[in-house]
Each structure stands twice: as structure tokens, then as C-alpha cells.
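step 4 of 6: structure.
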Amino acid sequence: MPALDRTALVLRLRQRLRAAANPDGGWPYYAGKASRIEPTAWVLLALTESSDAGPAARGQFIAPPLRLLETRQRGDGLLLDNPQAPPNFTANGVAACVLAHLSDDAQAASVLARLVGGLVAAKGVAIRTPLLDAIAAMKRLGAPRTAPGQDNTLQAWPWIPDTFSWAEPTSWCLLALKKARGLRTQAAEARVGEAEALLANRACASGGWNYGNASAFAQDLRPYVPTTAVALIALQDRAAQPAVVRSLAFLDRSKLAEPSGFALGLAAMALSIYDRDVTDVEDRLAADVERAERIGNLQTLAVALYALSSSRHQWKAMRV
Amino acid sequence: MVPAQSPMAILPATSYDADLTDVITRGLALLGVSVTGRRVFLKPNMVEYESHSAINTHPHVVAAAAAAFARAGAREIVIGEGPGHRRDIEYLLAGTGLDDVLREDGLRFVDLNHDDVRLVPLKSRFMGLDALWLPVALLQSDFIVSMPKLKTHHLAGLTASMKNLFGVVPGAVYGWPKNLLHFKGIEHSIVDLTATIRPQLAIVDGIVAMEGDGPIMGRPRPMGFVAMGSDLPAVDATCARIIGLDPAKVPYLSIASRFLGNVDDAHVEQRGEHPARYRTQFDVIEAIQKMRA
């Protein structure tokens, strides 16, 4: 796509996202609905990073969404879509990453400091099944051992409290703790270590991640592009780990296999962070973004906008 | 309250190129279903996408149902799904071909994973929960149709009209996969969702079903029928018998038979083809061998 067209596309996406802002300063997943944490964080990032605005205009722009996030913060630091609903740790992880990137703003820094405390304190449940584990180990005796089994005692981040840990919330919360380096405590360091171990353990045999199970009922499961991209971004400082090497190879060969705004945008982010050329991914994204616009998921449009304006920001918000 | 008799209809449909609107229209007539002036919500099964697989309700069945309900006088038709493994609705809509159908037929689709939500008290409490967040688009409808693909399911035994309701639970609240439902017991979740949502109708895509390690990794199995009925446990029990499972050994159907609907064959009135015409033995994984008839 010629540069002029790309510029026009970025402008169009910016206008669409700005027009969909709610009066409370946030964004919903779909225009006209209630503001939610996750799309608010993504749109805040995409609009901030795709803009040439100076510091004053930037401060003015980010104030309402930051106020919304602050009003959604409960006592333990976690952000809620609704006071009665459980916290969603993917949404909280994404918001923490964006706040860490904007933390030269006092309000962003203040929300982030409390949020990091909430993330460090939250853990997925461990599942201990000694009898089943022993049977599985016996079945494996004498069989060729291709990969270690899934370790369900590892505890990283679940989607909501009191459930199992999964790839996407773990990746975003892990990235958030890595980005908020100045706020890291010994407890946070331990959480980072266990989250990295969990992601390595849950990588698919072929490389990459799905929602977070490498196998089920003795069948290797297939990885997905978006979750693989997010996990690779979270593990960017562990590039030599075998699971990362295998997964990067998967993403290299599958980067165009899931042609949606969400998958292509995240693939472009991850591959760029690992110094890959993503011209083909961005071209495909620009060519296909009309479908994402028609479907209208604002978070997807924000991911696409952030990816298509990468020449302005060099993915700084996603780097550790 | 379980009715004395539950009518259902099995209609032959040998391929997705058949006149499925006519098939479903005949099913509605056999069952005496009226949707005049109602807001119909179609909930197909779209959980993952793999080409040449039989994971999802075929888009032609969805389009045909929409056309049949429009012909029957529905005031509005909305199609909605909240895929349980993937949150990327654009990828799934494009991959499955449902996006083409929506565009060509001008149908409205709601991404249930990311819709506005409301806390709804549960009408049975097998999960041990008082309430669940559910999508507003679903709650605003007054005629809900569960439209599953008929599949084996490595935990529940089978995916049919009741298990299909996992897709209404919003991922943006509960995550992917919808782990809370597994944590609380899959059979309990299926029953609580059905008791609370109480869909008015089931339309099961049994044209090409899935056997083996369903609901994702199994193999396509051509079966050549569409099953319809208003008593969801009765529809699911009939589907279970067709694929060689004993409904009494399928935990969710066993619980459902106590208060939600008829599972016993003697209380299901077949108004279309007799299920015996399609009865077979699906391959199942070891974990659900114990549910075989």
C-alpha cells in the first residue's frame, strides 16, 4: 500500500476510534456499549502513539481515559469493568502495560503503582492430582519422551480469580511486571519467574501457544497466532529459551495464516520486537482492515491502528 | 415442569446445498412453532476454525434458519455467538464463511464475548453459583434458538443443544476457555445454563457431524439430518441415542431428566423421520466409552 494511502488509513481509524469514545472517557468493545477496561487501554495507547500531538495536547487527551481507569480501581489496585464483576486479569495486564508506557504522567503512575500491587497478589489456582500424575508417569515409562507433561501446579495469572492460569492473562501481566521495573519487589520477581516457567511449560509441541493447553487427551493441540504473539512479546528478554525459539519459528511461518486485524496486528508487534521484517504483515493488515472496520470491534481497530502507525512509535510501549 | 410428551422432528438433509430453508420451515410446521412478531435469537456453535473440519454449525444452516424465521413472521432476527476458545471473532467469521452469509443476507451478528452484560440469577444452582453475567443481546430476545453442530465431546459426552449454550457466557468476563464452567463441573454448568436461559427451540446441524475426539479434534461424519425440538433434553437425548450413547449415562442428561425435560425415549414423540433410521455407533475416546449404550 502506498504511503499516502497508509496515512489516510491511519487517519480514518483514528477518526473512527475518537468518534466511539463514551462520555465517561472510556471505550467499549463495540460502539454504543458500556466502557470497558481492555478496549479503553488499547484505544488510549493507539490514539496516543499514532498522534503527533505535543505534550500539552497529549496530556489533555489522556486525562479522561486515565480518570475512567482510576474510577474503576478498587482497594487492592485491580481495575473492574463493573463493581460487581470479577477482575479480568488480561484487561488489567493490558492496562498496566499502557499505564507503564504513559507513566511520565502523574495520574498514570499513581494508578499503575496500585495496580502492580494487585497483579502481584493475584494468582491462578494450582491443580494437584497426585494419583493421575502417577498413572500418567507410569504410562510414559518406556515410551519415547518428546516433551515434559503439563505442570498444573504452576501458578501465574488466570482470567478471573479462583480459576486456572492461562496464556493470555499470564502474558499481559508478565509483560506489565517487566515494564514496571521500578515498582518490582521480591514478590514480583518470584511471580515473573513462575509466569515464565508456566509459559514455557504450556507451549505447544509445534511451537506457539493456544489459550494455554499444549495437549489434551493425548493429542497435541494447535497454537494460535494472537496468543503466540502476546506470549512472545512477554518473553522478549528470553529469546534464547527453546520454547521461544520454537514459537518464533511458528509465528514466522504462520504470520499471515489468521488474516484478522487482531491477529495480524499482534503478529506485527511480536515479530518487530524480535527484529523481523513485517512489511508483508502490515500490507496484509492494511489490505484487510475494511473487514475489521465493518465488524466494528474497537479493540481490534486499536490494535490495527497501533500496528499500522509503528513507524511513529517503534513499538516502544511493548518493549521491556 | 417436565411435559408428559415432548415432540421433536428429525428431517432428512443430505447436504448443505439442499433447500435447508424448506427443511427448517417444515420442522417448524411439524412442531407447531409460532414466532410471529417475536425477536428471534439464533445461537450457532462456532468455537474454533479448521478447514475441512466439522467443528461449527454450517453457515448455510444458520442462513436457512434466519430465512425460515423471517418467512414465519419474526419481528427481528439476531445471530450471536461467543466462541469458547478464541476471542478473535473476525478470524472465525471469515474462516467459517459465516461472514459471507451475514453480508449477503443482511443479517445482524452480535459478538457475545464482548457485548454489554447483566448479572442474571441462576434458576438452578448445580454449579454452586447464584448468578452469571450474560450478554444483553441474548437477554433482550424473546425466542432463543440453540443451533449446535452434533459432535462427540471428550468431557460432556456430546455437544448438542444444551452444551452449545456455553457460547453465551461472555469471554470478556470469564475468559477463554470458559474455565469457570469447567471448574464448577461441566454437567452442572450445562444444566444451570439451560435452566436459566430456557431456549424455546433447538435446531441441530446433524448433516455432517463429528465423531472421535470432539468437540475440536474429531473427524467429520456425514449423518444427513437436522433435528428440531422445543424440549432441549429430549432433543439431546435423541441425538445421544443416534450416535450410540445412552442418555442415562450422560451426566448432564441424567441431571436434566429430573426437572428440565424428557430424556426417556418413551416420552419423546417423533414427528419427522424415526431416529432409528440414523442410529449408528460413533467412535468415541476412552474417556466417554462409559457413556455408550
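step 5 of 6: annotate
 - Chain B is about 30% helix and 25% strand.
 - Chain B has a mean pLDDT of 97.
step 6 of 6: archive
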